[in-house]
Design brief:
Blueprint (H helix, E strand, L loop, with lengths): L6 E5 L3 H13 L3 E5 L2 H10 L4 E5 L7 H11 L5 E6 L4 H9 L4 E4 L4 H20 L11 H14 L15 H10 L8 E5 L8 H6 L16 H4 L4 E5 L6 H13 L12
Parallel strand pairs: 1-2, 1-3, 3-4, 4-5, 6-7
């Protein structure tokens, strides 16, 4: 597989700093963008996906620390951010790290110093990719990284999860990955296409039924909930279920008990 070229962004109002950093990062194999305008730099960082951002602290209009907070605390971008300043203090370095910076360069810095911190940041990026537990979801944008982070967090819980998205966007794939990362990975994964369920048999399909519960029920039968016991039940197109069945489904989810049709007891 071809290694993805690292993308770097330099935000600094000093031309000499930008030129020097651009040369170093280009020689390291990075695709480099830069700007001398703090506002434009913030826009670029939010509009596109970068692996590395070199960010000056003292700039007109917006300070580098404010940009850092916007990017890491509010927008949660995945780029590794290195702060640069000629007016640095230990307190400033600590604050920058607390808000998501990975390193701190005091101006003037040498080419060797820049190469060292940039290489360290990019190495961490490569390790994060190699450790990706969800390789089936292809993509490395900030949105995709956030989705994978959400999947990882949800997988450690037993919560009911609502997955939204247009048809064909991979909702079932997300549901399967949540199960694969959870303690339920060896249990059944039962997908149900709700649009294919016959209305008058929908409750029986979902909850199961007892013998004699309705005409034609010659024997007791498990529903999809019982089949998925201990694992995951994936209800695709849940909006296709009637409102009455949705109300019963909500009660089952809330109480975590599944009454079969024709039974007064819950499984």
């Amino acid at each position: 597989m071809v290694e993805k070229v690292a993308r770097a962004l330099i935000i600094d109002d000093e031309d000499s700093i930008r030129d020097g950093c651009r040369q170093v990062l280009s020689r390291m194999g990075c695709a480099v963008g830069d700007t001398n305008d703090a506002t434009r730099g913030l826009e670029m960082a939010l509009e596109d996906t970068y692996d590395l951002i070199l960010l000056d602290v003292r700039m007109p209009k917006i300070s580098g620390l404010d940009i850092l907070k916007r990017l890491k605390v509010e927008a949660a971008v995945s780029a590794r951010i290195i702060i640069m300043t000629g007016y640095g203090t230990i307190e400033m370095a600590v604050e920058a790290m607390r808000h998501g910076a990975v390193d701190f360069l005091a101006k003037p810095f040498s080419t060797a110093e820049l190469r060292k911190v940039a290489a360290s940041a990019l190495k961490a990026r490569d390790k994060r990719r190699s450790d990706d537990p969800i390789p089936e979801l292809i993509g490395d944008s900030d949105c995709m990284r956030k989705l994978k982070d959400t999947i990882r967090r949800v997988a450690y819980t037993d919560s009911t999860v609502l997955i939204t998205g247009e048809s064909g966007t991979g909702k079932e794939l997300v549901a399967r990955e949540i199960q694969n990362l959870s303690g339920r990975r060896d249990k059944p994964f039962v997908p149900v296409d709700c649009s294919s369920l016959v209305e008058n048999l929908m409750e029986s399909e979902l909850f199961g039924h007892m013998k004699g519960a309705f005409s034609g029920a010659t024997q007791s039968r498990e529903g999809r909930f019982q089949m998925a016991d201990g694992g995951t039940l994936f209800l695709d197109g849940i909006s296709n279920i009637s409102l009455g069945t949705q109300a019963k489904l909500l009660r089952v989810i809330q109480e975590r008990e599944v009454p079969r049709v024709g039974s007064s007891k819950a499984d």
